[in-house]
Structures are given as C-alpha cells and as structure tokens.
Amino acid sequence: MKKLFQSLLAKYMLIIILAISLVQIVYLILAIFIFGLSQGIDRPYTSDEADYDVIEEQWHKSAAQLEEVSVPEVQQLFEEWQEKYEDASMFWVNQDGDLMTQSDADREIPNEWTAFTVIAYPGNNDSNGFIVFEISRELFKTPVQIAYDRFGIILLIGTIVFIFLFIFLSFLFFRGIRKRLLQLQEAMEMRDVDGLPIHVEVKKQDEIGRLQHSFNRMVEELKESRLREQEEEQLRKELIANLSHDLRTPLTKLNAHTYEFAKTELPSAAKQSLTVMEKSIEDIDKLIENLMSYTLLMASKYKLDLQEIDVIRHTRESLATWYPVFEKEGFEIEVDLSGFKQSKWLVDPLWYGRILDNLLQNVLRHAASGKYVAVKTESTAQYDAILIMDKGKGMQGISDQKGSGIGLSIVDMMVKGMNLEWRIHSTDRGTVITLLRLKQKAGTDL
Amino acid sequence: MVRILYIEDEIEIGSWVTDYLKARGYEVIWLKSGEDLEEYTANIDLAIIDIMLPGLDGFSIGKRIKREAGDLPILMLSARTAVEDKIEGLGFADDYLTKPFHPEELAARVEVLLRRYQKNDTVLEIGHLKIDPKSMLIVDKITDKEILLTGKQFQLFQYFIRHLNQILTKEQLYEGVWGEAFMEGDKTLMVHIRYLREKIEENPARPAVIETIRGIGYRVKA
C-alpha cells in the first residue's frame, strides 16, 4: 500500500481525478460560499410576499372586490397595500385618463420599464379606468441572486484562479518528473576517474527512484567487473612476467658459463661455436621479450598511455643509447633530425621508444652487411615522418635470421595503436622504414 | 677499496658475478637473501639486488636500503623485464639491468654509478687530462698544470664526467646543468661548450675530449 502511494501513478491518478471532478468541486465550493454569504443578507420581503403570481392575483382580486370605485375607497386600498409593500407605488387613472389618486408614484417614467407592474380594473369594470401596482423587481431578488450580483466577479476570478491552480499543479508534477529524468540522464553521462558512471543520489522511492536504484546497481556491477578484469589483467601480467623471469634465469646461467668458457684457451672452432652460442642467447632473450610484448599487445593488455611528447627529442635520446652499439659494429651513422614545425606528437613514450628499439635492432641484426644506418626527418604538406634507412640486403634477405617477424608485428601493432602510419620500402640495396604522422586537413596541426 | 653488496639467490649466477666483480678489483659481499642486511649496509659503496628472492623481495630490500642510506647507489639486476617492473625498480634504484646480461655491461654500469655518487677514487685519464672525480681536480698531463673552470663550465664538465661514455643530447645537458627546460634555438649551451673546449682541449678546433656526435649530442669518453 505504501508502495502504491509512493508511486508516480498514484500521483497521476490523483491529478486526473482532480481534473475530472474539478468543475463539480468548484460548483460545490461556490455553492457553499454563496450560501454562506447569503446567510448574512436581509431580504425586505419574504419569499411568499415576493411571489409575482400571488401579487398579481391578489391585486386583481382586490381591484375586483372594490364595491364602490371612489377616490377614498381606492385610497384605502392603496394604503392597505402600502403597508405590506412600502416600496411599491400605486396610482389610479380613470376612464378619462385623469390621474385620480396615487401612492408614492411621483417618479419619473423610466426609459426602460423594468419594474414589476400589475394593472387591474377597479370593481372589475374597465369603465372605472385602471389601477396600477408597481414595485421594483430588485426588492424581490433572492439572497442568492443578490449575493451573486454583489460577488459575481470575485467568484468568476476565483473559478479562473482555481483552474489555473490546477494547470499549475499538473505543470509542477510533470516538470518534477522531467527534471529528475534529465538529472538522471546527466548523471548517467558523467564519468568517474576510472571511466565508469558515478552513483546517483536517490531521494524518492517512486518509479524514477527505482530506476536510479537500478542504475546504481548497474554501476556497482560494472565496477566489480572492471575490478575483476583488472585482477585478471594483473594475473596475466604476473604470469607473463614470471614466465619470462623463469626463462631468463637459465639463460643467464648459460650466458655465465659461455663467458667463463670463452676465457679459457680454446681452439678457434670452439671459440666460433661459443660466439654463436652467445649470439643465440641474446636472440632468445630478445625473442622472449618480443613474445611477451606480443602476447600482451594481442590481448590488448599492454597499457597505452598517450602523451604529447617532443618526438624529435625522444628520437635523439633513443639514438644516444643506440649510437655506441652501432659504433662498436663499425656502422656509418647519419643523424639529421632537423625537426618539424610541430614536433609534439601524441604518443606513448614507452611505445614509441619500443618501436625505435625494434627497428634499430632489426637494422643491427639484419642489415649489418651495409654498415650504414641513417635516421632522418622528412616533412611534407601531408605528413611529418621519421625515416630509418640502412644499406642492408633488404627484407627479402632476412630469412637466415628469423625472429624479425614478431618484432615488426609489434611495431605494426604499436604504430596503429597510436594512430600513426608506417611504410617499408625494401630493395636488395637497402631498406627505408618511414614512420609518419599525417597532418590534419587545412594545415591545422593538432 | 670499493665494497659492493650483492643480493642474489641463484648460486650459479651469484658466484659468477661475484667472481667477475672481484676480478675487477671490487670487494663483494654476496648475500642469498635480504636477511641480516643491517650488518652490511653501513659500510658499502654500492648495492646490486635481484628482485625474485626468497622472503623479502628485491623491491622491498632496495627501498629499505634507500631509506636508510640515501646516498648509496642501487642497481637492480633482474630477469623481470616488464616495463612495470622497471618503472617500479627505477622508482628508487639508480639503474636497472635485465638478465641475461653481459658482465662487461654490468661492470660499466657499476662504474657509472660509483662515479655519479663519487664513491670511486680512481683517477680518470681522458686524452691529455687527468681528472680526480671526487675533487674534480683537472690536470693537463702535458703542461702538468691544473685547469681552472668557471662555475658553469665546471658544472658542465662535471655533468659529462658523471655520465662518462654516455651520449648526452643538448636538452639533457641543458636541463641537467641549468635545471631549466631547454628552448629550441637557445645558443647558451653551445657557447659554454665552446668556452669549455677552449680551456680543456689540446686543440679546440679538433676537440678530442668532448666529442660531438652529429645530430645527437656530445660525449666524453674515458
């Protein structure tokens, strides 16, 4: 029952019932009001006295009953009536048209005859002329009529006010609903720091209140599911990290032993084998790293944290760490980062560094024969680009050193993940990898 | 003698690294876990810590050491290569090297850290210069005279010495020495490097101490 009264439906029904019965209610109220008013009004004549038919009948009767039609007789009749109706006027006009007598009839003849008037022939004979009884109809009005005359305008205004009050109430009702729905919609669109909707405050326990409760429940469930997802992500990362750790530990031991072994006196063939082993250990290490990244990237569990960074500066710093490695391998290194007009790119610095690392690693491993690496910038109306060039045997010649595939797949996923583009142009005389950021149309950079 | 505290639970890796570092002339205290740490932290110059350890993990040990001895350089040496681990490690440690590693790389990084914290008192010889990294006394071997640098030149050269063998971009140098963000086109650094070269280079027209790495930056190689 309580629920029913909290319901919007109940309120709506109340308004509808109010609307339907409003006219009756207003009538009822007015009736009571006017009746109340009329109680305070004195009427000059009782309702019996104020009966027009009775007056007419009795006037005719009195006129007919006049035994002798003479001035004193008529005068007496008039006096008798005057006692009863002191506001009335009476007069006798004889056959010749002379005014014979009158009682309180010395008024002007109005333009419009509104007074109640009864004409009778004295002695029931028209040769005696006629007597007239005249009295203002105003005096015969009922108190209700009088009250209506006096307070009519107030009552009309009252009725209109009543109707407008009703319209206003229904307006308030619907506006209340609308406002709450809009607030709910707004609240639904608001996002917390975690990207989830926030709780809405429930003030009333009606249908909208229940909707808000449901919404809050949904937010709660979303939060829980997000938490579960994060836990799973954490578990997965943990698993991969542990796996990678467990693979690397024996690799480190292997590394230690080859290193120790290499220090002893060995025939050149054995030294050669050790070098191959060392290289392989390094390769396995990189492969594990790439495999882990690839798995995380494929599962979209590799966190992308886009920031506006100076890509030229970042590239230069990355090259600073790579330079000694290339130097050691006897590469000719050409760096020309003359900069772009707009060198701030929206990228994840870790991802961007990883892309450069993978590409430079590839140059080192697969294009070492060219002994050349160049990193340059290129700027056109359409794009800004970073070029990594080598003079190796090209991508076709890399089959003897597999493993670049996964590295390039990672580059591909990361480049696309950051809304950049990349192109590979490879011939047997070298490879050019272009990492580019398209400029926005009409020359408006980000 | 430089004393290195090394925490590693893998016997084979531990003994190998210990032997290697000892052969390089360091004194190494090798622990297999973070227990009884307090006995050693007081008089060591550097700590090398693995992460996956029985009991207390390397992160907790490293953080504790850094809390107790803020000026002790810490190098994390781990097979955990995830970015999150590196970030957590570098939150308190000074360097993070992943396994498998080349022992020479470890040695190089140890030296960089010792130099940065001025724990190393071996005199550096760079070209015709002799430099005491602790006092930053610079002596020209040819003339056997001390080279005196002005404030900013001194800071700049000291920055190079602390990042020996590392290529430094102009942004890194400017921000490291001046402590302000580098503005593209600012010539201040170039001017100071020119003055510095005039003082320390044998032939400032062909600089040998402060190398220019075209397109990238500068380097002082030991």
From TrEMBL, chain A:
Entry keyword annotation includes Transmembrane helix: yes
InterPro entries on file? HAMP_dom, HATPase_C_sf, HATPase_dom, His_kinase_dom, HisK_dim/P_dom, HisK_dim/P_sf, HssS/ArlS-like
Q: How does it sit in the membrane?
A: Multi-pass membrane protein
Q: Which CDD domains match?
A: HAMP (cd06225), HisKA (cd00082)
Which GO molecular function terms does the record list? ATP binding; phosphorelay sensor kinase activity
Record domain HAMP: where: 175-227
Taxonomically, the superkingdom here is: Bacteria
Subcellular localization, per the record?
A: Cell membrane
Q: Where are the transmembrane segments?
A: 12-37, 151-174
This protein's GO CC annotations: plasma membrane
- What lineage does UniProt assign to this protein's organism? Bacteria, Bacillati, Bacillota, Bacilli, Bacillales
- Entry keyword set: ATP-binding, Cell membrane, Kinase, Membrane, Nucleotide-binding, Phosphoprotein, Transferase, Transmembrane, Transmembrane helix, Two-component regulatory system
Reaction equations catalysed: ATP + protein L-histidine = ADP + protein N-phospho-L-histidine
Instruction: Specify the species.
Output: Gracilibacillus oryzae
Pfam families in the record: HAMP (PF00672), HATPase_c (PF02518), HisKA (PF00512)
Gene3D superfamilies according to UniProt: 1.10.287.130, 6.10.340.10, Histidine kinase-like ATPase, C-terminal domain (3.30.565.10)
Residue ranges annotated for the Histidine kinase domain, each copy included? 242-446
Q: What is this protein called?
A: histidine kinase
The EC number(s) given in the record are 2.7.13.3
**Chief location of this protein within or outside the cell:** membrane
Automatic annotation (TrEMBL), chain B:
Cellular location of this protein?
Answer: Cytoplasm
Q: Which UniProt keywords apply?
A: DNA-binding, Phosphoprotein, Transcription, Transcription regulation, Two-component regulatory system
GO BP, one annotated term = regulation of DNA-templated transcription
- Describe the location of the Response regulatory domain by residue ranges: 3-114
Pfam families given for it? Response_reg, Trans_reg_C
Question: Would I find Transcription among this entry's keywords?
Answer: yes
Subcellular location, principal: cytoplasm
Q: Which residues bind DNA?
A: 121-222
Pinpoint the OmpR/PhoB-type domain residues.
Answer: 121-222
State what protein this is by name: Response regulator transcription factor
Q: Which organism is it from?
A: Gracilibacillus oryzae
